[in-house]
Amino acid sequence: MSDYWRNKKVLITGINGFVGGNLAKSLLEHGAEVFGLVRNENKRTFLYHEKLDAKIRIFLGDLCDKELFGRIISEEQINSIFHLAAQVEVGVGMSNPFLTFETNVRGTYSLLEACRLFPSTLESIVIASSDKAYGSYPVERMPYKEDYPLLPQYPYDTSKACGDLIAQSYANDVYNLPIIVTRFCNIYGPGQLNFSAVVPDGFRSALGYSKFVPRSDGSMTRDFLHVDDVSDLYLTMGEGLAKNPTIAGEIFNAGPNEPVSVKDVLKLIFSLANNQKDFDEISKLMENKKTTGEIDYQSMDFDKVNKHFGWSPKIGLKDGLKITLDWFADYLQKQKG
User: Fold this and answer.
1) How far are the Cα atoms of 67, 103, 233, 314 from residue 64, in angstroms, in the given order?
2) Whose C-alpha in 27, 109, 281, 302 is 20 to 30 A from the C-alpha of 236?
């Protein structure tokens, strides 16, 4: 990678989240000046655990505050934005769709309206959508392709599809903002402290810090992408968009196209932690357990990002889970102490 990011001023929404914290770490390593918007001062996160907070400038505020975004972008002369903040829990989306739509839809257009009003220093805006925006397609049409119509059914999925389409409208010939949209598969890795997700919940249980409570029979099948690969891709895409603004408005999927069932992911997690006994118990609890609000089968490839940016994932699932196991073993031990 070039020295493009050195001294660039970068705003990350959701910087106190899992992907945002990892992206901030990568940007700092590349010499960027990093700014972040957070909703509250929660310090039990990757950002604070890795002591990154002292190296960035944090703004406390609401994702729907257009005026705050305008002040940050104009006063700090922001060059690049990564919009990662979202209400990401599918279950919360089912029980509280209003909150999900407010955060994921209104939050997106509040940011982009501020960008429209203060565009002079902006070189790239990367909007994180999701593979769930596509909705459910039959297995024979997998992996998802960027030109597939968005067919979401559930609140979270619909909120991401709405934000996605709003972003595309700001990238069109009317406003000409330098925006691209990403639709990635399930992301995992160090710092994922949302324990409603299968990987961190699995590791916490496999390491003996909790009891895993199955919410399904484990047959749901997903692609998994390590967060280091995601950070690398985000930096590659942000630089690529800044240097080639003609790709504004493009959609980019990313996933390894190696789908694995949730049950098999858990099996691998417990195997790496040398805890077969607990997995056998969990496996029995999974039998005939049904869930709602989840898509049965999803997979994604990286053909388009490879064609445009020469990018491909470097970390396989087993190696990525080994890295993640080591991080969680250290983190959970420190939390216990």
Assistant:
1) 9, 7, 27, 36
2) 109
Query: Which pLDDT belongs to residue 144?
Result: 97
Rounded to the nearest angstrom, the gap between the alpha carbon of residue 303 and the centroid of all alpha carbons in its chain is 19
What is the tens place of the pLDDT at every residue in 182-197? 999 999 999 999 998 9
Of the chain, the percentage scoring pLDDT greater than 70 comes to 99
Q: How far apart are CA 226 and CA 203, in angstroms?
A: 15
The pLDDT, as a whole number, for residue 40 is 85
pLDDT of residue 41: 79
Domain boundaries, the chain: 9-188+225-257+298-315
The one catalytic residue among 156, 170, 188, 331: 156
Is 156 assigned a catalytic role? yes
Residues 6+ positions from 330 with CB-CB distance below 8 Å: none
Residues 52 and 35: their CA atoms lie apart, in Å, by: 11
CATH topology of domain 9-188+225-257+298-315: Rossmann fold (3.40.50)
Name beta bridge partners: 37: 13, 59
Q: Is the omega angle on the peptide bond into residue 143 within 30 degrees of 0, that is, cis?
A: yes
